[in-house]
Specification:
There is one protein chain. With 396 residues, the protein is α+β, with helices and mostly antiparallel strands. It contains 14 helices and nine strands. It has helices spanning 64-81, 90-103, 108-126, 136-148, 164-170, 202-210, 218-231, 235-239, 280-292, 314-327, 338-349, 354-361, 366-370, 381-388; strands at 5-11, 18-26, 32-40, 43-51, 246-247, 252-255, 258-260, 263-265, 274-277. A four-stranded antiparallel β-sheet has the order 1-2-3-4, with helices on one face. The protein has a three-stranded antiparallel β-sheet with strand order 5-6-9. The protein is globular and about 75 Å long. The chain starts with a strand and ends in an 8-residue tail after the last helix.
Length: 396
């Protein structure tokens, strides 16, 4: 009997190392199949990976590298779904959840949000109690404690989909806290409606741009604020924009990077990697900036710090934006992010299709884009309603 060919695969993983073995089994007809075997929580697991691609084949089956990658994903999945010890505390379980979230490629900002929810809300409430002592009444008390804090929706772990609190309290099977689920029957509060969209009028935009504060950043702030209004790019996407991403010939800006938590990375979502049309006015402003900037090579930042060419601190941008609003006589309670809302509302008012606007703004869900439709009045609305009720004979 032919013995299966064996290959040892070692998976290097942060703080939770796992070792697996990739096997190749040959059937009597000569075809070969990859199998994987590994240990998880004291148990030996074995799974079929898929057919092996022959040496002379260009399609069909898996290459060795593809089989190894698939085995790594299987190992990671079993680690994520593995039951946890009843004697663990909420802190221990939170650390496990964060490690698994990191392994799955969650962004640094998301990991920091999860850690914050654990430290600020869950750890003070549950303390060092073992998780097998959690019961239904304790979860209800937690809901009441969070409600009394009167948190903003983005800070409330009951509303944040990626927060540990929401994962454990709304999606319990993914993290088995105890043999009896104390969250069974607990109703999560409805996620509140998003806050009102605030935006600038065309006159306010002109007043703000004309009142940009003089100084070292003046030649940077004006085109940056203009780009935020005319492209809807997020602040992190603007400060990460490179000259190679600005195509003056095609009149488009490609959003490929984001700057968050002190490091460059991919944009917020997969849809956030996108191409946005560039107006002639914005192109002229960017060309003027490049003509006087020391940092104009393809990989240099468009809105680079004038002294060292690095990233301009986001907090400084927000302060100078508020100063320009105040100097221009515009309501200074506007946030920099309202410039993105300004783009969305004016595009909707110009009858840009929602699907197109979704692509330009990089929204994951169309429902997020559709909120701008409420701020898109048409000059012909009255005429359309009148036409709908028009009669050939006047009503007596």
């Amino acid at each position: 009997m032919t013995q299966p060919t064996r290959r040892v695969l070692t998976c290097q993983r942060t703080r939770l190392p796992g070792t697996g073995r990739l096997l190749i089994r040959r059937s009597p007809d000569g075809s070969e199949t990859y199998y994987g075997t590994w240990y998880a929580n004291g148990r030996r697991l074995k799974r079929r990976i898929g057919p092996r691609r022959g040496r002379n084949e260009r399609a069909g089956g898996l290459t060795e590298r593809q089989a190894e990658d698939k085995l790594r994903r299987l190992i990671a999945d079993t680690e994520v779904q593995a039951p946890v010890s009843d004697r663990m505390t909420i802190v221990d379980l939170g650390a496990l959840y964060i490690r698994n979230a990191e392994r799955r490629g969650r962004k640094k900002g998301t990991l920091l949000d999860i850690d914050s929810d654990i430290r600020v809300h869950l750890e003070p409430f549950f303390g060092r109690r073992p998780i097998d002592t959690f019961d239904y009444n304790g979860v209800i008390d937690l809901m009441g404690a969070l409600e009394r804090k009167d948190l903003a929706p983005k800070d409330d772990p009951r509303h944040t989909p990626h927060a540990l609190g929401a994962v454990q309290l709304r999606h319990r099977p993914a993290a088995q806290i105890a043999h009896t689920n104390p969250c069974t029957g607990v109703e999560m509060p409805a996620v509140p409606d998003p806050q009102e969209v605030r935006f600038l009028t065309l006159e306010e935009i002109d007043q703000m741009l004309a009142a940009v504060r003089p100084g070292m950043f003046e030649h940077i702030d004006r085109p940056m604020f203009m780009a935020a209004v005319m492209t809807g790019m997020r602040k992190g996407e603007l400060v990460a924009l490179r000259w190679r991403d600005v195509d003056f010939h095609a009149a488009r800006i490609c959003v490929r990077r984001n700057y968050s938590c002190g490091e460059f990375g991919t944009p917020k979502t997969r849809r956030s990697t996108r191409s946005i049309p560039m107006t002639a006015e914005l192109a002229h402003a960017l060309l003027a900036l490049r003509a006087i900037s020391r940092w104009c090579r393809p990989d240099d930042l468009v809105f680079a710090h004038p002294e060292h060419g690095g990233v301009i601190p986001k907090a400084n941008i927000a302060r100078r934006f508020r100063a320009a609003l105040k100097a221009g006589g515009v309501d200074e309670s506007h946030r920099f992010h309202d410039l993105r809302h300004t783009f969305g509302t004016h595009m909707a008012a110009a009858a840009v299709p929602m699907r197109t606007l979704q692509e330009w703004m990089g929204h994951r869900d169309l429902t997020t884009t559709q909120r701008y439709a409420d701020y898109a009045p048409s000059a012909h609305e009255g005429e359309m309603v009148a036409a709908a009720f028009a009669r050939s004979e006047p009503v007596a």
